[in-house]
Amino acid sequence: MNNKLHSELIKKAMFPDLGCSEFRELTARKAMRITPMRMMVYHFIRCAEDKGISAYQILDQLKSYNPNAKPTTVYRTLDW
């Protein structure tokens, strides 16, 4: 599967309306692209709501989509 198709599938699955204007505004404000990894991490954080979520909890969820994900992947994504 090519990256563009993968990206579109992730967007449709996690953000049916590509919604989350808050997410769009945040990435626009920082002049950053909306990447599949950023969308997934943002989604996991939002699903945690007020409970909070650690980087390793995000990693555990991420591994269901990307079994090769490493802690550095999550930390780099969170650092934006």
Provide structural commentary.
This protein has 80 residues and is mainly α. Helix 1 packs parallel to helix 3 (36-48) and helix 4 (55-62) packs across helix 5 (71-78). It has helices at 3-14, 21-29, 36-48, 55-62, 71-78. The protein is globular. The chain has one domain (3-78): Winged helix-like DNA-binding domain superfamily/Winged helix DNA-binding domain (Arc Repressor Mutant, subunit A). The N and C termini lie far apart (27 Å). The chain contains 5 helices and no strands. The longest helix has 13 residues, at 36-48. Helix content is 62%, strand content 0%.
List the secondary-structure elements in sequence, H or E.
Answer: HHHHH
Estimated helix fraction: 55-70%
- CATH C-level class is Mainly Alpha
Shape: globular
Through-space gap between termini: 27 Å
Protein name: Transcriptional repressor
Keywords: Plasmid
